Amino acid sequence: MTEHTSFTRDELLQLHGTMVLIRAFEQRFAALVMKGQLSGTGHLSVGQEAVAAGVCGALQAGDYVASTHRGHGHCLAKGVDPKQMMAELFGKSGGTSKGKGGSMHIADFGRGMLGANGIVGGGLPLACGAALTAKLTGNGRVAVAFFGDGASNIGSFHESLNLASIWKLPVVFVCENNRYGEATPVEYALAADHVADRAAAYRMPGVLADGQDVIEVYATARDAVAHAREGQGPVLLEYETYRYFGHFLGDPARYRSAEEVESYKARDCILRSEEVLRTTHGVPQSELNAIAQAAERAIDDAVAFAEGSPFPDLAEITADVYARSAT
């Protein structure tokens, strides 16, 4: 357990505010979909906010992040504008990908967000490429690849860890182990006790930590990022966390019990950070309430921006879709 008193009040408030914003965004997105105001579906990270907030909180503005299909939280934690994100979900031209990418293709290169990714494990080699750029140019940046426990069984996971190790790339691999790859329990699919155990095969540090404790996430991520930035090579982090929704919006999640879900909600990352802020740093409940209210207002503004943004013009249907050869 990380010693909470080793972090300042402002550091904890920043991390807490990021988690609260992520949850407000995700819950509003879910409500909009359920009401039929948004088409399609999405993969929510409600319950997993501490991983996104803690890891991205340890990064610098220019560092790179490669995300997953469950990537809204990563984007927000990396500083992507919630207005542009919401517009993207609405399919509007004011979105991060001008309304053409949707939930699984939110990207903002100016923020170092290389994109959410609909391909399981697809972000790992992208992070290796960004880390190779950092190493060859000497720009001092670090790349982070988020992925789930299911992706740790994909070939790109092993290929990426091997490549990063032999080339000593400044990349941090972050496994969000939420216990299920779609509906498959991790105990069934993983031929190891923990994903972090697999780091030894690639001669890199492997760290297992509590993904429901934002301070523990931040502390371990900060150490891993410093290790990579100092030229010591990659690190594999595994955070044990949990998603409160099913794999996707509309998934009844009959593969797990209500008791299991409630047991994880009792260890909710936001409730735990509130407790630390109150008891360790004397933050009054009124201030915590104000943080939650500010997050809701930010999401109100994001929805208003999205609703007021135009749809892409039909004449732009092929714009930014195809790449042209330089020759």
Task: Explain what the structure shows.
With about 325 residues, this protein is of the alpha/beta class. It has 11 helices and 8 strands. The chain has helices spanning about 10-35, 50-55, 70-75, 80-90, 125-135, 155-165, 185-190, 215-230, 260-265, 270-280, 285-310, and strands spanning about 65, 115, 145-150, 170-175, 180, 185, 205-210, 235-240. Helix 6 (about 155-165) links the parallel strand 3 (about 145-150) and strand 4 (about 170-175). Helix 1 (about 10-35) crosses helix 11 (about 285-310) and helix 5 (about 125-135) packs parallel to helix 6. The longest helix has 26 residues, at about 10-35. It is globular. The mean pLDDT is about 95.
Order of helices and strands: HHEHHEHEHEEEHEHEHHH
Sheet of most strands: 6 strands, parallel
Task: Round the Cα radius of gyration to an integer and report it.
Answer: 19 Å
Q: Average pLDDT, to the nearest integer?
A: 95
Name some characteristics of this structure.
single chain; 327 residues; alpha/beta; 6-stranded parallel β-sheet; 11 helices; 8 strands; 43% helix
What's the topology here?
Elements: H1 9-34, H2 49-57, E1 64-66, H3 72-77, H4 82-89, E2 113-115, H5 123-137, E3 143-148, H6 155-166, E4 171-177, E5 180-181, E6 184-185, H7 186-189, E7 206-210, H8 214-229, E8 235-240, H9 258-265, H10 269-281, H11 285-308
Parallel strand pairs: 1-2, 1-3, 3-4, 4-8, 7-8
Antiparallel strand pairs: 5-6
Helix pairs in contact: 1-2, 1-10, 1-11, 2-8, 4-11, 5-6
